[in-house]
Write a structure and sequence with these properties.
Layout lengths: L21 E3 L8 H16 L7 E4 L1 H10 L6 H16 L12 E7 L9 E5 L5 H9 L2 H18 L5 H15 L9 H19 L7 H15 L3 H10 L7 E7 L10 E8 L6 E9 L3 H6 L5 E2 L3 H4 L1 H18 L3 E8 L2 E9 L4 H13 L5 H6 L3 H7 L3 E2 L6 E5 L1 E4 L2 E7 L2 H9 L4 E5 L7 H6 L2 E4 L7 H9 L2 E4 L5 E3 L4 E3 L5 E3 L3 E5 L4 E4 L4 E2 L2 H6 L12 H16 L3 E5 L3 H9 L5 E5 L9 H9 L3 H25 L4 E5 L12 H13 L5 H13 L11 H6 L3 H18 L5 E6 L5 H22 L6 E6 L2 H5 L1 H4 L5 E4 L1 H9 L3 H7 L1 H6 L16 H15 L4 E4 L7 H10 L3 E4 L4 H20 L1
Parallel strand pairs: 14-15, 15-16, 16-17, 24-25, 24-31, 25-26, 26-27, 27-28, 28-29, 29-30, 30-31
Antiparallel strand pairs: 1-2, 2-5, 3-4, 3-5, 6-7, 6-9, 7-8, 9-10, 11-23, 12-22, 13-17, 14-21, 18-19, 19-20, 21-22
């Protein structure tokens, strides 16, 4: 069956009525995630593998998109669902919700990309006042039947009817309190029957209608609720956070129920084929006897480690281990599995490629290569730059004096320090005020997503590695410690009591270690990551004391360096940064900002240059600056010997080197009032007023400075040329490149270039040294991009200054807009991500493409690079690879990330070309 020509994919000109909207689990496969969602595609794949999957069917994402676009379900959908339901009933030998022996089903969401807990699920559909009696009789267990019924009303009431879930929780807690028990499994059938009555009254009171007794009504309403949950606030927030497109829609999976709450020989669990926190092989997961699946992921009851299932039910355990091996070998990756055991019979409810921590991702990728399951190219697709950046963050100093107050499950690594907060609203509020916070909950639920995003880390007293908090935190790369049972969390009083009676109030500082699960009072100092020590050359792979993670990172970086086409340079302004960048793998400097060399003690010289009234005074200032600039460049060329160094001539407005206008005005006014001498201050104030601009970033700066202030750029060019000559005469290999900033027309570049060429020729003649200094420009104005073909006639290289290009394309002042309205734009979905963080491919990216193409049409050997911070952004690096740039340049710390992503870009583009 062709993926591209299937009747389920709406082709151009195809009517909605002719599209197939429902698929049996026997019809799909794992490659149909766009259509069946991840859950449905993988249920179909497991069915095809012959694994024990309860029968069911999937309603496609196409049906969801029709519903979301029109507000109505496709006309053909009800009939298709009816046909598949009838086939399911025949297979199971029972009808949905029939009184004597009811077929029950679950209705679960399942988008293309995993969105744990963000959309809706309803279990036990088909139960009613009549069928609950039949279920009790068939199961021989009244308690089980009434427990299943109360679960249905609770889930259906909250997710489908919109009833406040706290009302059901409070009623459940009251029932346990009346019975004097602590867990719901200790409630008896009579207690649960009363609870059902209470739950139905809650529905009636809150909704003005009775809980629906018709099983088909239940199913249809649940399907609609799952569709609606795609556009729920928590789902939209999660998609923005994870950069998942908003137009995909969700599939709906209707699956015959199997029950883990039938007694001690039943249960439910989540398993991983490898540890998602570390990547180590072994038996990892959680199991809960006499429970349904939601109990595990919600963290309401504390689970037992999966390994204990071997003692509880060895037959099911052995079968599960065999299935896990089958799935990992089939998917060739870490698999996340949900399963239920119904009276000793194992059923597989879901599998997917599991979320993992950054460290686990690198370890697993190299392990799979060693096992021969994947090759190096595939391994590179299993890790990413964001994960590598996480691994470079500091960790807690284990030698520091600390006060440990608890320990939970190490769910997601990292060293997080912040003020304790006990609800999502406070976490967001304090975070927006600049506070770092740790969100503390008994257990999290999808409604806590805002707070989880805002917090530095998450701490819960319940749940395990498969709880909501753990899964979501790992997906976000957020530090998380779960199941710290010894900590008593009181969210209503906003406090946490630790062993020994000490109370942590809201606002108190705490530290959590997601790698060890340890919880500390106060702020624990941090030390550099071993991965950073590796890049700095202080830890060597293969050494006796080498970190296992360092070895994995080393191998993946070697893979990337062998595969990548893009070279990676550094943004560095001094020898110290240059040397560090070189240790991190930089292949040159793509941006040396000379304005950073004019600060400190040299500021007075710049002031004198600006205030010069005569040519003699200006020459005197430039003459004083020349040897200082030359020394800067000599040190830089020595640090980067043999590698290219691109030096940008002075760029910012000159008023940035002068005193603040308000402060200077006050000084002058005070001097006048005291009748003190103030000629110099007054002269300086007049200069500041003369140079003051309303929009300085669009004023006298860049190439305009070089054209307006005689001798400024030629002084810098002379310093570069003399430094290069000195280094070459010392048997070095300087490779200087001179970059002219903010060019908007070729005439500007031609004038500056003509003067620069004369200066370089003079230095060559006086030093007897041949200097091959490339001269190019930054493309950071829309006009430069649009006339790149002309500008290339005078430029040997282009470097895209994407920071300023983004500002000028969008009409943004970065310093102003990020604080004023970017948050609103992100929340409203106008931005998926800030255009200063990841390049705007449609706008700014189009100009980069156009300029690159036009420039090379004029000058085929034109070197192309990028020196904005986009050069270190993972997603942007892939774009620059596709456009055909020669290199990216970024801050030293981001060089490893850029190297890795450049390798991944080469692999993924080769794969797409092959396909």
């Amino acid at each position: 069956m062709s993926e591209n020509k299937d009747p389920h994919v709406a082709q151009s000109g195809t009517s909605v009525e002719s599209v197939k909207f429902v698929y049996d689990f026997t019809e799909g496969n794992k490659d149909l995630k766009d259509l069946l969602g991840g859950k449905g595609a993988n249920l179909a794949e497991m069915t095809n593998l012959g694994l024990p999957v309860p029968p069911g069917f999937t309603i496609t994402t196409e049906a969801c998109k029709v519903y979301l676009d029109s507000g109505e379900e496709p006309a053909a959908l009800r009939d298709e669902v009816s046909a598949h339901l009838e086939a399911l009933e025949q297979r199971m030998g029972k009808k949905l919700g029939q009184a004597d022996d009811p077929l029950l089903v679950s209705v679960r969401s399942g988008a293309k990309f995993s969105m744990p807990g963000m959309m809706d699920t309803v279990l036990n559909i088909g139960l009613s006042d009549k069928s609950v009696q039949g279920l009790a009789k068939q199961a021989g267990d009244d308690r089980f039947a009434w427990d299943s019924y109360r679960r249905l009303i609770q889930m259906f009431g909250k997710t489908v009817l919109g009833v406040d879930g706290e009302l059901f929780e409070d009623a459940l807690e009251a029932a346990k309190a009346a019975k004097k028990v602590t867990v719901d499994t200790e409630l008896e059938a009579a207690d649960l029957k009363k609870l059902v009555t209470k739950f139905k009254k809650i529905v009636k009171t809150e909704c003005g209608r009775d809980f629906p007794q018709d099983p088909r009504d239940q199913m249809d309403l649940a399907i609609k609720a799952v569709f609606d949950s795609w556009n729920g606030e928590r789902a939209k927030l999660y998609r923005r956070q994870e950069r998942i497109p908003h137009d995909l829609g969700t599939a709906v999976n209707v699956c015959s129920m199997v029950f883990g709450n039938l007694g001690p020989d039943s249960g439910t669990g989540v398993a991983f084929t490898r540890d998602p926190a570390s990547g180590h092989q072994g038996v990892y997961g959680d199991y809960l006897q006499n429970a349904q699946g939601e109990d595990v992921v919600a963290g309401i009851r504390n689970t037992v480690p999966l390994a204990e299932l071997e003692q509880i039910d060895k037959k099911s355990y052995d079968q599960l281990m065999q299935i896990m091996e089958t799935l990992e070998n089939h998917y060739k990756d870490l698999c996340d599995i949900e399963f239920t055991i119904e009276r000793g019979r194992l059923w597989m409810l879901q599998t997917r490629v599991g979320k993992r921590t950054a460290g686990a991702a690198f370890r697993i990728a190299t392990q799979l290569v060693d096992q021969g399951l994947i090759d190096e190219a595939e391994a590179l697709t299993r890790v990413n730059g964001a994960q590598l950046a996480q691994l470079m963050f500091p960790r807690f100093d284990e030698s520091a004096k600390v006060e440990q107050v608890g320990r939970g499950i190490a769910a997601s690594p990292g060293a997080a320090v912040g003020k304790a907060v006990f609800d999502s609203y406070t976490a967001v509020k304090w975070s927006r005020s600049g506070e770092k916070v740790i969100l503390i909950r008994r257990e999290t639920n999808p409604d806590d997503l805002d707070g989880m995003i805002a917090a530095e880390g998450i701490l819960t007293s319940r749940g395990g590695k498969t709880s909501h908090a753990a899964v979501v935190a790992r997906g976000m790369g957020k530090t998380c410690v779960c199941g710290a049972e010894e900590l008593e969390v009181d969210t209503k009083r906003r406090r946490m009591t630790v062993p020994g009676g000490h109370v942590v109030e809201e606002g108190d500082l705490i530290s959590i270690d997601g790698s060890s699960g340890k919880v500390y009072l106060g702020e624990v100092p941090v030390v550099p990551s071993p991965v950073v020590e590796y890049f700095e050359g202080r830890m060597h792979p293969g050494a006796d004391d080498a970190d296992e993670l360092v070895e994995a990172v080393h191998r993946m970086m070697a893979f990337a360096d062998r595969k990548r086409r893009l070279r990676v340079r550094a943004n560095a302004d001094n020898a110290e940064d240059a040397l560090r960048a070189r240790r991190f793998g930089a292949q040159g400097i793509g941006l040396c900002r000379t304005e950073h060399m004019f600060l400190g003690d040299r500021r007075e010289l710049v002031e004198r240059l600006i205030l010069a009234d005569t040519e003699e005074e200006r020459e005197e200032s430039l003459k004083a600056l020349l040897p200082l600039q030359k020394k800067d460049f000599v040190e830089l060329f020595e640090a980067m010997d043999g590698l290219p160094v691109t030096i940008r001539l002075l760029d910012p407005p000159l008023h940035e080197f002068l005193p603040d206008i308000t402060e200077l005005s006050v000084r002058v006014a005070l001097a006048e009032s005291r009748q003190e001498p103030h000629e110099n201050e007054l002269r300086l104030l007049q200069a500041v007023h003369r140079l003051h601009e309303q929009n300085p970033m669009l004023g006298l700066r860049g190439v305009r400075l070089g054209l307006v202030i005689p001798g400024l750029f030629t002084m810098q060019v002379r310093a570069i040329a003399e430094a290069a000559a000195e280094r070459r005469n010392a048997k070095g290999d300087p490779r200087a490149e001179i970059m002219i900033p903010l060019v908007g027309t070729v005439q500007e570049l031609e004038i500056v270039r003509e003067e620069a060429d004369k200066v370089v020729a003079e230095v060559e003649e006086t030093t007897g040294t041949s200097l091959k200094l490339a001269i190019g420009t930054m493309i950071e104005l829309p006009r430069a991009a649009l006339t790149a073909g002309q500008i290339a006639e005078a430029a040997e290289f282009f470097s895209f200054g994407t920071n300023d290009l983004t500002q000028t394309v969008w009409g943004f002042s970065r310093d102003d807009v990020e604080a004023s309205f970017f948050t609103a734009y992100l929340e409203k979905g106008i931005f998926g991500v800030s255009p200063f963080e990841t390049i705007d491919k449609d706008g700014v990216g189009s100009l980069v493409k156009l300029a690159a193409k036009a420039g090379r049409e004029t000058r085929p050997d034109l070197k192309l690079g990028v020196c904005g911070e986009h050069g270190g952004d993972p997603e942007s690096v892939h774009f620059f690879h596709e456009v055909g740039l020669d290199y990216v340049s970024c801050s030293p710390f981001r060089i490893p990330v850029a190297r890795l992503e450049a390798g991944r870009a080469a692999v993924t583009s080769a794969g797409s070309d092959h396909r």
